[in-house]
Amino acid sequence: MRPRVARVAIAAPLYSLFDYLIPDGIAAAAGCRVRVSFGRSRAIGVITALGDESQCPIERLKPLDAVLDAEPLLAGRDLEFLAWVAAYYHHPPGEVFAAALPLRLRKAEAALAVGEPVWALTRAGSAQLASPPARAPRQAELLAWLGAQPGGVAPQSQLGGELPNSRGVLRALCAKGWVEARQLAGRVDPVVAGGHDRVLNDDQAAALAALSAGIGGYAVTLLDGVTGSGKTEVYLRLAAEVLARGQAVLVLVPEISLTPQLLRRFQARLGSAVRVLHSGLSAGEREQTWHRVRLGLSRVLLGTRSAIFTPIADLGLVVVDEEHDPSFKQTEGFRYSARDLAVVRAQRADCPVVLGSATPSLESLRNVQAGRYRHLRLDRRAGGAQDPHVGLLDIRDQPLQAGMSQPLLDRVQKTLEAGEQVMLFLNRRGFAPVLSCFSCGWLSDCPRCDARQTLHRASGLLWCHHCGAQRPVPRVCPGCGAPELHPLGQGTEQLEGFLTERFSAYPLIRIDRDATARKGSLERQFARLQAATAALLVGTQMLAKGHHFPRVTLVGVLDADGGLYSADFRSTERMAQLLVQVAGRAGRGDRPGRVLIQTRYPDHPLLQTLVRNGYRAFAEEALAERRAAGMPPFSHQALLRADAGDAQTAHAFLDAVAAWAIGLAVAGVEIWGPVPAPMARRAGRHRAHLLLQSTQRDALHGVLNALPPFAADLPAARRVRWSLDVDPVDLY
Ligand code: ADP
Ligand code: ZN
Ligand code: ZN
Questions:
Q1: Is 422 among the domain residues?
Q2: How many folded domains does the chain comprise?
Q3: Is residue 277 located within the same domain as residue 341?
Q4: What are phi and psi of 613, to 5 degrees?
Q5: Which of 179, 276, 418, 576 has the smallest number of CB atoms closer than 10 Å to its CB?
């Protein structure tokens, strides 16, 4: 007997799955998308299971409208993984399943078939949509039609059906570069595993041997290696071994666009089998890659956090590079940790997972302590480079110019004169974080947030980095009309201006989100640096991301104090990671490096431990503190956030949830709040949160299981925006 009932995850904010009858003559399989009627409208969903029974009476079930895929897009293993994810994060399952699909397939569009040509709007083509070619109406029509397709992509069959006889028009548009032909090639990417040109050092060889012995089974390994110790070299060799067995490799990285070097290295070593997934690609490109790895045509996927949901044929290895990086956590909408999910995914695929970092997260170190993760260490830099010398620079009594003390300036001068490169790290973009009036005390407050608007002098704007609100820089004080306003503090724009004047003989490269907003500009900046001998490099935390700048021998940290006394209990961990990662850019070539950290708190115990004894010693102290305070990773948290037009409404909603949760009286679950969020007003909304914490994950999840449906049904829920964050990484 054919199963009669399909259980469907509908792409909507609903906490349950819904059963539909499978009409006679329709072939349905788990993992196929379906169109169903839901309430008064139509919806798209994914079949998660087939069966003969339902909790609803069978005669009350509605039939499916249509099954959209002839073959399942998601395999049984993928469906189980996604169901687990939805349950763990207490997120609507339909939205979790949708997150695993390329944009176009979240709608009712047909999936690309192997070998079928696809037409896609190019970037130039998208730019033409606003001013279509007036003298070529058919071109304009096709352009508009393609522009209206999800992602600007349509398969040939659909285009031919809706706009017949359009070959000539397509050819003209392709010639103009507005449209391009793509196809999901059926060819299998050749794997070029090999091309090793150097001998591994003893530590690397030992790590590789331990890891390769574990291929074919699940185990988590923390590869804890100082910056430049050759971790990437180990991943590459391990990946080559897994590929040689005919299996696939998933590599998660924090941000691909910031580390083009890493991608090139993977491609050079593993061949064209390496495909990438990140948000900078067009929807069409992403869908191609998605199908290719799903079908086993490509075997290496290098991607940012959302790549964790990609179905992959024969997954044999998962690598998370820079596993401590906060960008593995999605902090809006569906909030998940790709690092944590990498472990779950590997367990389900029964394959090894390697978490690599020079500054491992306290969570991972805790798992090592508890015997859950294996710990492999690389303590020396590979290839003979020496560890940098790190020192603190007390700036309490120092006059500063654009944030730089005289000793740091002298050191910069010497380094440049020696023909070497300098990197200066200041984690604030813009010219100055505040503009102020000395006559009346006016400050550049954001009208919509509890924050200041940053002065961006080059663009003549006051700009809030929290909500994006902008206004032109006022000519006179808006408070008292005084003719002069004064910038307070420094940002990278100011530092750049000062250094360009001071060291005019040397090229200066600024790396931050403003300076590299245009596509390709980051690559151009890196190329300039590579071509130069003596040069200055100024930037924000974008500089801390795994770059390899062999000629940098001096790293200056302008302000280490921001993270020392913050309200967030994770801020010291972040600060330590950032400092060590930035410091790790120094002396990666044959000349030794020096790191100077400016601070007003040279006796701070964290800085002392970090500078004298390194990150591991710091991490041990920090873990001991967390243990004593019962904070994560020694307890588990979930954060319920709410915001509303006024503070009262947000608090009333959270009060109701808190009362309910307390009433459940689950042993071992603490409920703290509601309290105002650290930034109580943002983008005009008043924000508050409720923290749930327990040393037992099961107990916590016992409460969380019932929380979203309860909260969604509260009358107050209609007047707030709320979200549940399981394992939050910030309380912001
Ligand atoms: P990590 O990923 O730990 O930062 P990498 O793998 O990027 O380290 O290695 C740092 C540098 O050392 C790179 O330039 C790399 O090519 C080089 N390197 C790595 N392993 C070796 C080795 N065994 N012998 C010589 N050079 C090496
Ligand atoms: Zn004033
Ligand atoms: Zn704002």
A1: yes
A2: 5
A3: yes
A4: -120, -5
A5: 418
Please, are residues 587 and 553 in contact by the beta-carbon 8 Å criterion? yes
Query: How large a percentage of the chain has pLDDT more than 90?
Result: 62
Based on the domain organization, do 223 and 79 belong to the same domain?
no
Per-residue pLDDT, averaged over 514-520, amounts to: 77
Apex CA 485: angle with CA 482 and CA 491, to 5°? 170
Domain hosting 131: range is 115-185
Residue whose entry in the numeric block shows the structure tokens 């590299």? 516
Cβ-Cβ contacts under 8 Å for 78 (sequence gap 6 or more): 31, 100, 311
Residue 627: both structure tokens together: 């243990």
| CA-233 nearest atom, ligand 1 | 6
CA of 315 to the centre of ligand 1 (A): 26
Ordered alpha helix ranges (H), 100-221:
123-128, 137-148, 156-162, 167-175, 202-213
What pLDDT score does 446 carry? 95
Task: Count other C-beta atoms under 10 Å from residue 551's C-beta.
Answer: 19
Ligand 1 site, CB within 6 A: 198-201, 204, 225, 227-233, 382-383, 548
Is pTM beyond 0.85? Reply is: yes
Neighbours of ion ligand 3 (CB under 5 A): 446, 448-449, 464, 466-467, 469
Q: Report pLDDT digits (tens) over 133-188.
A: 888 888 898 899 888 887 788 877 788 888 888 888 888 888 888 888 776 666 77
**261 closest CA partner among 215, 302, 202:** 302
Tell me how many degrees the CA angle 139-144-148 measures, rounded to the nearest 5: 150
pLDDT tens sequence across 358-389: 999 999 999 999 999 999 999 988 877 777 88
Q: What is the pLDDT of residues 425-462, one digit of tens each?
A: 998 999 999 999 999 999 999 999 999 999 999 999 99
| CA nearest ligand 1 atom 25, residue | 383
Q: What is the pLDDT of residue 3?
A: 75
| CATH code where residue 216 lies | 3.40.50.300
Report the nearest atom of ligand 1 relative to the CA of 550.
14
Q: What mean pLDDT is reported for the chain?
A: 90
Q: Which residue matches tokens 């006394």? A: 565
At 516 the pLDDT is 77
Question: Residue 437 Cα, ligand 2 centroid: separation in angstroms?
Answer: 5
User: For residue 201, which atom of ligand 1 is closest to its CA?
Assistant: 23
- The rounded radius of gyration (Å) of the Cα atoms in the chain is 28
Nearest CA to ligand 1 atom 6: 230
